[in-house]
Each structure stands twice: as C-alpha cells, then as structure tokens.
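Reminder to self: tokens first, then the designed residues, so the page reads top to bottom the way the pipeline ran.
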C-alpha cells in the first residue's frame, strides 16, 4: 500500500512535470521556429554562456543555473515515488528528459541540446544528493 507521503510526492511530481512541460514548450514566449535547432556537441552551448562578453549575467543565470535548478526536484521526488536503485531512477529520468528534448526539437519550440541534458542531469544529481542527505538525517533521528 502506498504511504500518504509517497502519494503526496507522486502528486507533486505529476504537477511539476505538467508545469515543466508548459515552460519548455510554451513558456517564455516560445513560438515555433522556422528551422529545427539542435546541438549534439557536448559543452558548446555551456562554453558560449561562460564567455562573459557574449551574454549578460542574467542570460547566464537563466540558461545555466536555470537548466540545473529546474531539475533538482526530480532528484528529490523520483527516488521516493519509484523506489528503484539510483541507476534505474536516473535511467527513467533520462528517458523522460530525452523525450522532452525531442519534443522541443520536433515541435520547433526549443532546441535539442546535449548541454541541456548535461545541465539537467546535474540538477537531478544535486536533488538526489539532497534526497540521500535527508533520508540519512531522518534515519539517524529514528535510531
């Protein structure tokens, strides 16, 4: 039987996923582009944003830190909801992430960018670290 806590996390992840899909496909003034946009070379986009002369600090924060931060909740919530080993939880996350990137490409409402996958994965792993630290904290309080 699913615990109330796990039910809450399941609800939260579904709501957050719907919000994220909106942001990534329609938010921020996204409209279909004339061309398919993609980057398959690791660290190209990240490198461009790290060149201070090319982008403002606001653009840097939104694109780099935003791509990390927006996926932290998945690292916290998914292990609770799915109760799988870490590699399997990450594999499930990666399938969803690649599906999102392909949807952006095919709808032309964004780009498929391997650097987004890298940054989003970093966010997931930060969230997973938070999950593990919280689990350890609560486990030690019970003993």
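Designed residues (143 positions):
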């Amino acid at each position: 039987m699913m615990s109330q806590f796990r039910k809450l996390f399941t609800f939260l992840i579904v709501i957050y996923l719907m919000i994220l899909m909106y942001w990534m496909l329609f938010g921020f003034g996204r409209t279909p582009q004339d061309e398919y946009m993609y980057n398959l070379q690791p660290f190209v986009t990240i490198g461009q944003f790290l060149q201070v002369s090319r982008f403002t600090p606001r653009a840097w924060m939104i694109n780099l830190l935003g791509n990390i931060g927006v996926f932290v909740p998945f690292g916290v919530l998914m292990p609770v909801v799915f109760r799988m080993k870490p590699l399997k939880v990450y594999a499930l996350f990666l399938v969803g992430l690649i599906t999102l990137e392909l949807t952006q490409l095919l709808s032309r409402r964004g780009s498929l960018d391997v650097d987004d996958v890298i940054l989003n994965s970093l966010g997931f792993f930060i969230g997973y670290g938070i999950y593990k630290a919280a689990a350890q904290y609560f486990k030690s309080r019970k003993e």
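Residues 4-142 form one domain.
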